Structure formats: C-alpha cells, structure tokens
Amino acid sequence: MKFVLRRLAFYLLTAWAAITINFLIPRLMPGDPVQSLINRFQGQLSSRAIDSLRTLFGLDEERSLWQQYLDYLGNIFTGDLGTSFTYFPTGVSEILAQSLPWTLALMGITTLLAFVLGTAIGIHAGWRRGSWLDGMLPLTTFFSSIPYFWLGLIAIAVFAVQWPVFPASGGFDNSLVPAFSAEFIGSALHHGILPGITIIVSAVAGWILGMRNMMVTVSSEDYVLVGQAKGLTERRVMYAYAARNAILPNISNFALSLGFIVGGTLLVEMVFSYPGIGYVLFQAVAANDYPLMQGVFLIITLAVLVANLLADVAYLLLDPRTRREA
Fold first, then answer.
1. Using a CB cutoff of 8 Å and minimum separation of 24, what contacts does 167-175 make?
2. Per-residue model confidence as pLDDT tens digits over 155-201
3. Are 161 and 168 in contact (CB under 8 A)?
4. Torsion angle of alpha carbons 272, 276, 279, 281, nearest 10°?
5. Domain CATH code at residue 266
6. Do residues 293 and 281 touch, judged by C-beta distance below 8 A?
7. Which parts of the sequence belong to the ABC transmembrane type-1 domain (predicted)?
8. Cα(122)–Cα(204) distance, rounded to whole angstroms?
9. What's the pLDDT tens digit per position in 232-250?
10. DSSP string, 225-245
11. Residue 95 domain-assigned (yes or no)
12. Closest to 290 measured CA to CA, from 27, 61, 77, 9
C-alpha cells in the first residue's frame, strides 16, 4: 500500500509539472493566433471586437502570464478547457468529446490486438527457436520498418483504388447521421478496417521481437530448469514459468501504448482523413490554437500517467520482487 501511495504522489507531482509545461509551450511558439482568426474574417472585425477576442482567449496584455496560469489551472478543475480558435466559437471540450471516441475505438482495438497477437507469437517463437515460426521474424521486421503512412498509402492504392473493397477515407458514410444504430456502426467498422489493419501490421512485429528475445533470455534461467526437472508439462513451464517473467517488459510498453492511444496515430488519421484526435491536433498546431493544443496535450498526459500507474500495479501482481513489504 505504501508503494502505491508513493507512486501516486509521484504521478500527481508529474501531472502538475506536465500541466505547467503544457501551459507554457504554446505561448512560446511564434505567431499570433488571434491575428490568424482575424485573417479568416478578412479584416471584417472592429478593434473593439479584436480586444474582446483577446480577452476571451486570455491573451489580453493587461493580464500577466502568472494570472493567465492561475486562470488556466482553475479552468482545468472546473472542466473548462477554453474556446477553440480553429473551430470558433465551439469549446475545446466539445471538440474532444466528438473526436476522442473515434481514436479510442481505432487505436484501442488495434493496439490490444497487436499486443495479444504479437505476444502470443513471440512466446512460441522464443520457446521453439529454429522453428518455421521463428524463421518468419525477418518478414515481420520488414513490415515494422515501413512507416504507418506509407503502408496506408499502399493499402489505399490496392484495396480502395485497384480493388475497391474498402473506402479510402472518412470514418463513416457521409449519408448517415452518427447514432447507435446497426447501419451506422457497420459503416464505421467498414471504414476502420483499412487503417486498423495498417496499424496492426506495423505494430505487431515490435511485440513479437521483444517477447521472443525475452523468452530466449529466460528459457535458460534456473527456475525454468527446476520446472522442467519437476516433470511439469511443457505448456505449463512455457506459460507459468518462462512467459510470466518474460512478459514484464512488454507490460510496461503496453501500458505506455495505452497512454498514447488517446493521441492517435497522426499520420494514419491524416492519410485516411479519419476524424480522430490526431488530426484535430494537427489542425490546432497549424492554426496556433492554444486552447485546443493544451486540451489535447492534457488528455494525452493524464492518459500516460494513469497507464504508468496501472503498469506499476500490474508489476506488483506479476513480479513478487517489486513488493517492498516482502
């Protein structure tokens, strides 16, 4: 319990530091977001309207940086993430609520499938070295070295243009209205298959290689030899003795992957015009949209910290050596 409380205090301190950096970085970037918004209206705004916009976005010169920081912290605790420059006058919270489910659905399912599939293949490839499965590693490594967006372009050219089996862009059919209906869910799944397969093909090789190497390392440990000497079945020794210890590094990497799920895969979402949070972040950076950038970074930061905390708890359950009380 003490270990969990210490880690929780550490993550709270880290969250405060990340929030502070999140506040400062956009304001250190060159450019004036209010001026960009004015340019969108082609000079149709009066000087009084311009001053009101600066006050609305917390960028008026009368307020110091410290006062803006305190207001920013207060707004976070009240759930007010500000108003977006890019989607003015829509609030940041509303934009994130619309785009986040798309990214969570796509990245969450593909990350989990890649982890489970890669870990299972890596266990068997590392345990049975020299088998045909182990010989497939160079092929998987080749696919992992290809960037997401390049695989996406190839997938679009083959399966959306040459053989129009899947749609090339979008998250659902434009003729449908988002709703919890069988037709809309089917359309969303159909549009998500191509980017999902692209992500899995690129990510699964890393899980296979990492798990395979750890299985090779632990297979010669004394506790594995003891399990074999006790006459246990090969399946039990492989999973309960070797894989349980070999999977620990993959657990940490998987926790980090879960944290970055909310950030989406920016290039994949851009290639497929997928309505996720990664594409929203790209638009926010291009428009110097401080509130939207801060909202996206805040969600990503908190997700990574929570995922790391869950990884620490998982370590306590899987590895007795991390239990300080013992």
1. 167/191, 167/194, 168/194, 168/272, 169/272, 169/273, 169/274, 170/272, 170/273, 170/274, 170/275, 171/102, 171/274, 171/275, 171/276
2. 888 888 888 888 887 777 877 767 777 888 888 888 888 888 888 88
3. yes
4. -170
5. 1.10.3720.10
6. yes
7. 100-311
8. 10
9. 888 888 888 888 888 878 8
10. HHHHHTT--HHHIIIIIIIHH
11. no
12. 27
Confidence band of 326 (pLDDT split at 50, 70, 90): very low
Q: Look at phi and psi of residue 31 and say left if phi exceeds 0, alpha if psi is from -120 to 50, else beta.
A: left
Reading the block at residue 267, the tokens are: 């290039």
Phi, psi of 154 (to 5 degrees): -65, -40
Q: What range does the domain containing 266 cover?
A: 100-283
- How far apart are the C-alpha atoms of 274 and 21, rounded to whole Å? 29
Angstrom CA distances, 214 to 37, 118, 131, 219, stand at 53, 13, 17, 8
Q: Which of 250, 130, 272, 154 is nearest to 202 (CA)?
A: 154
Kindly state the tokens that stand for 127: 């345990």
Note whether residue 85 is domain-resident. no
Is the residue at 207 inside a domain?
yes
Output the six-digit token pair for 319: 């590895």
Q: How many CB atoms lie within 10 A of CB 40?
A: 12
Residue position matching structure tokens 């909202």: 295
